[in-house]
């Protein structure tokens, strides 16, 4: 699986880009795909220094991309982010 | 006193009237925002009575490295410290910030009405951020590689808490120039309170924001510099002059980027007027601003505010001249003669 995840905004305002390939179990990937739907409508207008998250994932011929706010990012994608960027 | 007419005027017209100096409409706008906020807070607390009786008490919650807020209450106002350095420091620093606003400007907690000060620590895993969500603050531990322990940094805590103060005083919207001003006021009170906390003079201070949350491996000394915007780290793209104004769409149209422009003007002003005069001028200006105020509105408002404070004998007689010079140095020139 190829991925590109961009985190922008936040207190630092410094964008972070994580890009690479990872061996992800097919089962896990199938669980994640339904969550890769844009959810950028900010439910909290008073949020300050929240981060924005942009996901792009490719596996074979399948391509998925989705954007999220600090509050709308699903736990499943937070876990994937953690797994891809800090598991080493 | 606000006339009842204000309540039937659409917000965008109220804003225009506020911009032209109509204090009644400015008050209506801000009251409306405050009422909405109070209603929201009251709902969040379930009982309005609980909110009304608040005294700006501190509550420190441990998120236990989950992405949930308020997982476990570990310290509350007047309670014992615990075996967690981050919790103890978040308690101490949030108290210092609260007391600064109270003792300096008479502001009773974040909203001027004793709102409880709630801090969530140990949020998420390797979470490189801190934020204000309209009601409370949330801090990550950092990934330990480039960032660390956001809740222990006095300037970060003051920055986040100041977002709350801004929400209640002027409610600057979080995009483009009003958003950059929102960020600017948080950096202003972040650095002012840091200097007070460290007992530094303006000459001794480093004017850095977030220097204690970056690690040795981080390619830079801090997240931002108010003295020299654009130099804090190798990603720092803050301009220090309108000539280099960022007009892209990223970061809510550059709220953490273009804040470098007024930040530099603040630094220049402090070097001539001192920290306390500038803190008072900026605080009173924040109270006078409105949701859609831009950089030019900020300049006109701060000059009028400084003039009033000078006439009241509260700040240096050279304030208006120094402010004009400082803002001119970053490319913001007053059109009002
Ligand atoms: Zn901020």
What does this structure look like?
The complex is a heterodimer of chains A (88) and B (337). By secondary structure, chain A is an alpha+beta fold. Chain A has one domain (2-87). Chain A has helices at residues 26-32, 75-86, and strands spanning 2-9, 16-21, 51-59, 62-69. A four-stranded antiparallel beta sheet of chain A has the order 2-1-3-4, with helices on one face. Chain A is globular, with a radius of gyration of 13 Å. Chain B is an alpha/beta fold. Chain B has three domains: 4-49; 54-152, Elastase, domain 1; 176-329, Neutral Protease, domain 2. In chain B, 46% of the residues lie in helices and 8% in strands. Chain B is built from eleven helices and seven strands. Chain B has helices at 11-19, 23-44, 48-52, 85-105, 154-169, 176-197, 250-254, 260-273, 275-288, 295-311, 319-329; strands at 58-62, 72-76, 117-123, 130-132, 137-140, 208-209, 224-225. In chain B, a hairpin with a 4-residue loop joins strand 4 (130-132) and strand 5 (137-140). In chain B, helix 4 (85-105) crosses helix 5, helix 5 crosses helix 6 and helix 6 (176-197) runs parallel beside helix 8. The longest helix of chain B has 22 residues, at 23-44. Chain B is globular, with a radius of gyration of 20 Å. The interface between A and B is medium-sized, with 24 and 35 residues. The complex binds zinc ion. Zinc ion (ZN) sits between chains B (159, 163, 183, 186) and A (11, 48-49).
